[in-house]
[Ribosomal protein bS18]-alanine N-acetyltransferase (Demequina sediminis), 152 residues
Amino acid sequence: MIRDLGESDLPWMAEVESELFGASAWSRELIEHDYVYGFTRYRGIEADGRLAGYAVYGYDGDAFHLMNLAVLPAMRRRGLARALMEDFLAEARRVGAPDVWLEVAVTNDAALALYRAYGFEDVRVRRKYYQPEGVDALVMRRALSTYEPGSP
Ligand SMILES: CC(C)(COP(=O)(O)OP(=O)(O)OC[C@H]1O[C@@H](n2cnc3c(N)ncnc32)[C@H](O)[C@@H]1OP(=O)(O)O)[C@@H](O)C(=O)NCCC(=O)NCCS
């Protein structure tokens, strides 16, 4: 159900990005460049026989980081983001990361609820992180020492 995205999935991902994130979406060019050159994994989740969401994670230089996560609107509240979070946390643990990090818009109630359910704690606010909208980001961290697979 969860698999690596292939290059042929990237145009689909770029379209979903644009629909969900508007002006601050990752562009197709950025996605295709990062896919080839970044230290990231692109993971997709299938439901009802088609791709329904994705997560991008990996080392961003010095920390294991969730860089992107989305589920198609019609597929939400079915546990797909949970499954992607489990995949992310399992990989972070497999590579020996002590903790995991992410940023989330302070206005994104659904994502904040998801991350808090997974034990992420507030670290600091990055002012006007999301451009061009100028929305603040909350930096969140979760230690992996307390993580048990399958139970947030
Ligand atoms: C955030 C997002 C990925 C959640 O995806 P999802 O597949 O619907 O999430 P799940 O069904 O796995 O939900 C897991 C838990 O997250 C929380 N949650 C998810 N959506 C929520 C919402 N709209 N309101 C409140 N809590 C929510 C709940 O705790 C939920 O558990 P529950 O259903 O047992 O109550 C999805 O809403 C999305 O793609 N949003 C747009 C993109 C985005 O904002 N990505 C995050 C960028 S940082």
Summary: Residues 20, 69-71, 76-82, 104, 108-111, 113-114, 117 surround coenzyme A (CB under 6 Å). The longest helix spans residues 80-94.
